[in-house]
Amino acid sequence: MKARVICLVFVASVAVCLLAGVAAANQANDCIMMVSNAEAFIREKGVEYALKVFSTRNSPFVDKDLYIFVLSMDNVMLAHPFNPGLIGKNFSDHKDSNGKFVFQEFKKVVNGKGEGWVDYTWPKPGEQGEFPKSAYVKKVHGQDMYIGASYFK
After folding, report:
1. Enclosing H/E stretch for 103
2. pLDDT tens readout for residues 100-109
3. What are residue 117's DSSP bridge partners?
4. Angle at the Cα of 138 (from 84 to 67), degrees rounded to 5?
5. Continuous segment of H or E residues that includes residue 132
6. pTM score, two decimals?
7. Does 135 score more than 90 pLDDT?
8. What pLDDT is attached to residue 3?
9. Single Cache domain spans which residues (predicted)?
């Protein structure tokens, strides 16, 4: 009987871990898809209009806590749907709670491979402190900017 309980606990633990991994993979795929769609939207509608849309909470580029953000290659925020006060602010010197220059890391990725992932910490709305987050960032072809989407791990 005790062996059965241990076995059931083990199986349940494995199932929870597998589901957590699937959820993280889905969030990562959602980030990549949203960034790809945002890049296509910029090409189709133009930069000025796209930045307005990306800065709107009820746009198709906001899905709960997943959204598009846009920065210039100088790390000036160009679009953010939840905090318009960030737009126009330079984030080059912003460090997360671990001392990582997050936006400099974003810039390294887009200047290097053109796109990729950066792990960092960021405040979670309604909670104290910073939490682990992953961002997928991509240079916008032919523009002096990059776009990104991120999720809390």
Report:
1. helix 102-112
2. 999 999 999 9
3. 136
4. 40
5. strand 130-139
6. 0.82
7. yes
8. 54
9. 20-104
Write out the two tokens for 74: 């100088």
What does the alpha-carbon distance between residue 145 and residue 78 come to, in Å, rounded to a whole number? 9
Q: Can you tell me the distance from the alpha carbon of 76 to that of 88, in angstroms, rounded to the nearest whole number?
A: 6
Helix, strand, or coil (residue 135): strand
**Interatomic CA distance for residues 52 and 103, integer angstroms:** 22
| Token pair for 18 | 């597998």
- Superfamily of domain 2-152 in the CATH hierarchy: PAS domain (3.30.450.20)
The pair phi, psi for residue 94, each rounded to 5°, is -75, 125
Token output for 11: 């199986």
Q: Is beta strand 115-123 parallel, antiparallel or unpaired with respect to 77-79?
A: unpaired
Q: What is the pLDDT of residues 14-39, one digit of tens each?
A: 333 333 343 446 999 999 999 999 99
DSSP letter for each residue of 49-62: HHHHHHT-TTSTTE
- Residues 85 and 113: their CA atoms lie apart, in Å, by 30
CB-based contact 95:101 (threshold 8 Å): yes
